[in-house]
Design goal:
The structure is a single chain. The chain has 2 helices and 6 strands, in the order ααββββββ. With 152 residues, it is of the alpha+beta class. The protein has 2 domains: 29 residues; 86 residues, Sandwich (Immunoglobulin-like). The longest helix has 27 residues. The strands form 2 sheets. Strands 1-2-5 form a 3-stranded antiparallel sheet, with no helix packed on it. Strands 4-3-6 form a 3-stranded antiparallel sheet, with no helix packed on it.
Length: 152
């Protein structure tokens, strides 16, 4: 007796990737590409305008030169300020003790400079300030400098 070949199990229904994941994505239209390009250009121009105006604003920098403690109640602080020679500035200086506690504080007015004063065409000027302290200071530094508002 011979056995007949049994038919194989039916093949699974054909599935395509498009049925499973959706059809192909369409490319961007010319109008969409143009809109993206215009938005990118506008953002670039705005960024360049911001960079150019931020560099034009008043800037100031300072550098600690040194300090000396004259006695338990007086410290002398030396520093340099670099700014526009025509601008006035204010700098906060502080004297600190061995635990970094502030034992003396003073706000110093730095006036406009003549072009022949200081260095760098009047941009950099040196200053020496006496700060009264509550106790012996072991350090004296500039905390910050700024250009005051015109209305003050």
């Amino acid at each position: 007796m011979t056995s007949q070949d049994q038919p194989a199990a039916p093949a699974p229904a054909p599935t395509s990737l498009a049925n499973r994941y959706g059809g192909q994505k369409r490319a961007l239209s010319g109008k969409a590409k143009r809109s993206i390009l215009i938005a990118a250009l506008a953002a670039g121009i705005a960024f360049m305008a911001w960079i150019s105006t931020s560099n034009a604003t008043d800037s100031i920098s300072y550098k600690d030169i040194g300090y000396s403690t004259l006695d338990a109640t007086l410290t002398e602080i030396d520093f340099q300020v670099t700014k526009d020679p025509a601008s006035a500035a204010k700098c906060a200086v502080k004297a600190m003790d061995s635990k970094f506690a502030i034992v003396g504080w003073k706000v110093v007015d730095v006036g406009p400079n003549a072009a022949d004063a200081g260095t760098d065409g009047g941009r950099t000027s040196a200053h020496r300030v006496l700060v009264h302290t509550e106790s012996q200071a072991v350090s004296g530094v500039v905390d910050s400098c700024w250009i005051p508002d015109a209305e003050q």
